[in-house]
Design goal:
This protein is 55% helix and 12% strand. It is an alpha/beta fold. Strands 2-3-1-4-5 form a five-stranded parallel beta sheet, sandwiched between helices.
Length: 177
């Protein structure tokens, strides 16, 4: 049984990890940590700019460093990870060991694509094609990793508030709060 005084959210980009994470953190009075924001602070530029200048391998290195630093603490927290955090075995091992309750926020491909159409938010292409068009193949690649790592899966089509409430209830059920 993992240390459940923290919650780590995983899932594809635009599935709602940051939005839901902030809501859960507020309800639990736990700090909220956005891994992408931490990486931007660490590298001194936006993820899109860093990705463009340095490439995906350098970004994944920075992401791994950030995840290790964030999870080194024993403090309670709600952590929203980047969508590709599961690609590195070292990240999956660290999240499994130190991430507390790991929740996969799942959304259908069409929902992800619609959210990306309305708010791309500086997300870089990972394949050289349009981020909206590349989503189906990337989700198919990552989904088994999300499912393997997660203790629970939550569908994100209800409102962000409903998803947050579901996660708070999941933590309560596991006698964390």
């Amino acid at each position: 049984m993992p240390d459940l005084h923290r919650l780590t959210l995983i899932g594809f980009r635009a599935c709602g990890k940051s939005t839901v994470g902030r809501l859960v953190a507020a309800r639990l009075a736990w700090p909220f940590v956005d891994a992408d924001s931490e990486i931007e602070h660490q590298v001194g530029m936006s993820i899109a700019a860093f990705f463009k200048a340095q490439g995906e391998a350098a970004f994944r290195d920075a992401e791994q460093t950030a995840i290790a630093r964030i999870l080194a603490s024993d403090a309670p927290m709600v952590l929203a990870t980047g969508g590709g955090v599961v690609l590195r075995p070292a990240n999956r091992q660290l999240i499994a060991a130190r991430g507390g309750l790991v929740a996969y926020l799942e959304a259908p491909v069409a929902v992800i694509q619609e959210r990306l159409r309305h708010h791309l938010g500086g997300r870089p292409s990972l394949t050289g094609s349009n981020p909206i068009d590349e989503a189906p193949a990337l989700i198919a690649q990552r989904e088994p990793l999300y499912r393997e790592l997660a203790h629970c899966t939550v569908e994100t089509r209800p409102s962000a508030g409903e998803v947050a409430e579901c996660l708070v209830n999941e933590l309560a059920t596991r006698a964390v709060i």
